[in-house]
């Protein structure tokens, strides 16, 4: 069985940029540079706060106010004190001014509040996949969300997760220049017709395709701009000990920005389904990526992945869904 080349090795670039160190606040992580970007409501407006785990206990914070166009990016270190998590005095400004907007003054207090809420339940989140504090009025945590695992805050999502991703480098504009997501694309006009049965098998996994698909070899099958891939990996080869940990890694990806509102991880009898919509800011394209994770003997896991331009998928949802479902 070969090592994965599709869904897992996306972390290679991150591993070369960020050393895998353990801090006193964040646990040891082999991927550094993972980030979460939030949309926060303010009276009559909104703004964005982005959080990126930079390694050990360092945190990159991005702020952007669409109304005033003010923004900043800073690096700081989180510290534990008798009062909980605080910022160190060493604050490096990468871009902008931290006092340029009336809203920016509350950013650091907001981030510390999030950090302390998460730190208080971090051990419980190591056992749970989802957790809510204070019912509908409080925090909703989900295990695959980077940094503080916060998905939303408030009964009307006064704070909501907009997107997640991982830095390609320290100049990645997907995070450092984030100013919002475009509207979702319209469905394509192309309607796909079935074309006779074709059920290829690779590494013991059979995929229900049809004769529209071309066998590219190595467990890869293509049709138009869609791609289906099959691969099998060992969890231990990637310092993982559970399929849900692998699912979280696949969710993070490196293909672009993962749209939180259209993405999620679902489990049924030990089989995991990772669904995500992705926005590639370089090409301004949307795509669907869905991965099924099937546990095999020992610590082997087979992954069946579908990648497809989102407009084509939206027009032909039933056609593509039957491949993995």
Poorly predicted ranges (pLDDT <50, ≥5 residues)? 1-22
Largest sheet: 16 strands, antiparallel
Instruction: Enumerate how many helices there are, as a single number.
Output: 6
Approximately how much helix is present in the residues?
10-25%
- What is the end-to-end distance? 24 Å
Domain module count: 2
Query: How much strand?
Result: 35-45%
Question: What coarse outline follows from CA principal-axis ratios?
Answer: globular
- What structural category arises from helix and sheet content? alpha+beta
- Based on CA atoms alone, the radius of gyration comes out at 21 Å
Total strands: 20
Order of helices and strands: HEEEEEHEEEEHEEEEEEEHEEEEHH
Please state the average pLDDT score.
88
Main features:
16-stranded antiparallel β-sheet, Protein Transport Mog1p, Chain A, 325 residues, two-stranded antiparallel sheet, 2 domains, alpha+beta
Describe the SSE topology.
Elements: H1 12-17, E1 34-42, E2 45-55, E3 58-64, E4 71-81, E5 84-96, H2 107-125, E6 130-132, E7 139-142, E8 150-153, E9 159-166, H3 173-176, E10 197-198, E11 201-202, E12 205-206, E13 209-210, E14 214-217, E15 220-223, E16 226-234, H4 243-252, E17 257-268, E18 271-280, E19 285-295, E20 300-309, H5 310-315, H6 317-324
Antiparallel strand pairs: 1-2, 1-9, 2-3, 3-4, 4-5, 6-7, 7-8, 8-9, 9-17, 10-13, 11-12, 14-15, 15-16, 16-20, 17-18, 18-19, 19-20
What does this structure look like?
The protein is an alpha+beta fold and 325 residues long. The protein folds into two domains: 33-176, no CATH class; 186-324, Mog1/PsbP, alpha/beta/alpha sandwich (Protein Transport Mog1p, Chain A, 3-Layer(aba) Sandwich), CATH 3.40.1000. The chain contains six helices and 20 strands. The protein has helices spanning 12-17, 107-125, 173-176, 243-252, 310-315, 317-324, and strands spanning 34-42, 45-55, 58-64, 71-81, 84-96, 130-132, 139-142, 150-153, 159-166, 197-198, 201-202, 205-206, 209-210, 214-217, 220-223, 226-234, 257-268, 271-280, 285-295, 300-309. It has a 16-stranded antiparallel beta sheet that branches. A hairpin with a 4-residue loop joins strand 19 and strand 20 (300-309). The longest helix is centred in the middle third of the chain and has 19 residues, at 107-125. The protein is globular. 37% of the residues are buried. The model is unreliable at 1-22 (pLDDT under 50).
């Amino acid at each position: 069985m070969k090592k994965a080349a599709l869904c897992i090795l996306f972390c290679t670039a991150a591993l070369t940029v960020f050393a895998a160190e353990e801090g006193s606040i964040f646990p040891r992580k082999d991927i550094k540079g993972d980030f979460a970007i939030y949309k926060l409501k303010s009276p009559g407006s909104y703004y964005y706060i982005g959080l990126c785990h930079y390694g050990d206990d360092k945190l990159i914070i991005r702020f952007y106010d669409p109304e005033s166009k003010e923004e900043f990016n800073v690096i700081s270190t989180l510290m534990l004190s008798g009062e909980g998590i605080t910022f160190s005095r060493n604050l490096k400004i990468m871009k902008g001014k931290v006092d340029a907007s009336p809203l920016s003054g509350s950013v650091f207090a907001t981030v510390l509040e999030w950090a302390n809420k998460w730190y208080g339940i971090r051990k419980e989140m190591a056992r749970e996949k989802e957790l809510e504090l204070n019912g509908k009025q409080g925090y909703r945590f989900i295990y695959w969300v980077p940094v503080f695992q916060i998905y939303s805050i408030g009964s009307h999502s006064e704070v909501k997760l907009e997107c997640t991703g991982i830095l390609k480098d320290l100049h990645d504009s997907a995070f450092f220049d984030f100013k919002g997501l475009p509207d979702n694309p319209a469905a394509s006009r192309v309607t796909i017709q079935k074309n006779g049965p074709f059920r290829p098998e690779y590494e013991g996994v059979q995929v229900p395709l049809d004769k529209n698909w071309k066998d590219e070899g190595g467990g890869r099958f293509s049709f138009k701009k869609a791609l289906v891939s099959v691969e099998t990996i060992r969890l231990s080869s990637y310092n993982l000990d559970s399929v849900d940990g692998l699912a979280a890694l696949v969710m993070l990806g490196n293909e672009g920005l993962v749209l939180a509102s259209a993405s999620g991880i679902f489990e049924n009898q030990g089989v995991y389904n990772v669904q995500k919509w992705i926005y590639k800011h370089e090409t301004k394209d949307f795509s669907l990526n869905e991965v099924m994770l099937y546990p095999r003997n020992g610590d082997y896991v087979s992954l069946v992945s579908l990648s497809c331009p989102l407009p084509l998928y939206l027009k032909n949802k039933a056609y593509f869904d039957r491949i993995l479902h």
